[in-house]
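Researcher: I need the complex structure. Ligand is flavin-adenine dinucleotide. Inputs:
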Amino acid sequence: MQANNEISGERPNAVDADVLERIKAAVGPKGYTLDPDEIAPLCQSWRDNWHGWVPMVVKPANVDEVAAVIAICAASATPIVPQGGNTGLTGGSQPHATGTEIILSTSRMNKVREIDVLNNTMTVEAGCILADLQIAASDADRLFPLSLAAEGSCQIGGNLSTNAGGTQVLRYGNARNLVLGLEVVLPDGRIWDGLRGLRKDNTGYDLKQLFIGAEGTLGMITAAVLKLFPKPTEIQTALVAVPDPGASLTLLSRATDAVGEQVTAFELIQRRPIDFVLEHVPGMTDPFAEAYPWYVLMEISGQGAPDSLRDAVEALLGDGLEMGEVLDAVLAANRAQGEALWKIRESIPEAQNHEGQSVKHDVSVPISRIAEFLERADKLLEAAYPGVRCVAFGHVGDGNMHYNPVQPLGNEGADFGAEYSNINRIVHDLIHELNGSISAEHGLGRLRRDEAKRYKSDVEVDLMRTVKDALDPTNIMNPGKVV
Ligand SMILES: Cc1cc2nc3c(=O)[nH]c(=O)nc-3n(C[C@H](O)[C@H](O)[C@H](O)COP(=O)(O)OP(=O)(O)OC[C@H]3O[C@@H](n4cnc5c(N)ncnc54)[C@H](O)[C@@H]3O)c2cc1C
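Model: Output:
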C-alpha cells in the first residue's frame, strides 16, 4: 500500500495563535477541538495510507459559523481541509503533515431542514450521515438512492464533494445527478445560497455542478437540496454465474431491453475475490454447489406488486441459460436472501486485505470495452509480474471496475507495494488508450492528482486551473489536492 505524508509522531502547530483565538471566538467552545487524541484519527485515512496533522479541528454548528471561519482563514491565508466522514480513498480529506492547516468538519451540521414530498426533495445539511438520510427519506415514504459500503459513516457533503457513485448509479445516476440545489461558503467567506429545488432552471451557468466533485477545492458545501424517488415495492436480486465478462455485457443488454430502467444494479465479480470472501469473512457460504469463473449480482426493482417482476427475471435467466450466456443462477426468494447476496459483494474489500499487498484502481471505460480492458490488463500484468493475482469486481453497468492486483502467492517477503506506481502506470495507460478514466468514482485527491495531468489534455488542465484560480486565488481550500 502506498504510504504518504508520514508524520512519525511529530505534531507541529504552525497556525498563528491569533488565528486560532479568532476561530475559537467565532464558533464557541463546542465548535472546535485542540485535543490531540480527538484530532489524531481525523488526520489519518480509512486505509491508513495518508497521515498528517492539524493543530485544530473546527466543528461549526451552522453556515454562518462556517462563513466566519473561512473569512478568518482567508484574511490570514490559513489553508483549510474540509472534512465529512473521512472515508474518502484518495487522501483528499486528510491534512498535510506541516501543521499549517486546519480541518473544517461538518460533523455538527446534521439537520434535515425540510422534506417536500410533493416536490420529491429533501433539504439537508452537509454533515448528515448518508444512512440517516436514507432512513429520513424512507420515513417519508420516499427513496434516496445513493448507496455505498461506507454509508454508515460518510456524510452527504463528502458524497457530493467526491461525486460518489455506489451501487445504484445505473438507474439513478451518481451524486451529481441527485442534487437540485446547493448552499456553499466560498473561499472568501461569502455564502452562496443556491438551495433551489427546481428541475428546470436555465438562468446561466449551472454553478452547483462546479462544487460537486471538486473535493473541497472550490468552497465548503454546507447544505443541499436532494432528489427523492418513489420507494420500490418490488425487488428481485440474483447472483448469476457467467462464463466471462463479455457474457455479462450481453446479459445486461438483454436485461435493459426486457425491463428498461428497472435494472437498478449490475455488478460483475470475478471468482478470485469470492474465494477471498469465503476464506476470510466468517459465516459466508458459496450460494452455488460449484465454482464459476465470473458472476453478476443483478438487482431489478420497480413499483409493482410483490413478485411482479419475477417472471421477467426468470425468463431473462432461462433464455441466458439456453444461449450459454448464463451458467447458473440463484434468484433470491426474499429480501433477506437478497441482502445475503449483497453481503458477498460488500465483503470483498475487507476480504482482500487478508491476502497481502494489493494495488488499487478505480477505473472506467465505455461499457462495451470492459471485457477488452480486463483481458488486456490481466495479460500485461501477468507478463510484468509473473504469478500476480488479478482481482476485478465492480459496477460493470456503469463501465466502472475496481481492479486490484494482489501480490503473488509465496512472495510474502517481497515488497509488492513498491511496484504501486509501476502497476498504476501499466493499468492507467491502457485505460487512457481505451478512452477511459483513471478515477471513476473516488476522485483525485492527492493519490491521482499528478497522474491525472498525464492523461488530461493541456486544455483540460488549463480550464481546471482557471476555475480554481478564479474562485480561490489564494489557494486556501484544500491545497495540494485535485489540481
Ligand atoms: C468501505 C468503503 C466503501 C466505499 N465505497 C464507495 C463507493 O462504492 N462509491 C464511491 O463513490 N465511493 C466509495 N467510497 C469512498 C467514500 O466513501 C466516498 O468518497 C464518500 O463519498 C466520502 O464521503 P465522506 O463524508 O467520508 O467525505 P470525506 O472523506 O470526509 O471527504 C472527501 C473529500 O470531500 C471533501 N469534503 C468533505 N466534505 C466537504 C464539504 N462539506 N464541502 C466541501 N468539501 C468537502 C474533503 O476535503 C475530501 O476532499 C468508499 C469508501 C469506503 C471506506
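Model: Summary of the prediction. The two ends are 23 Å apart (CA to CA).
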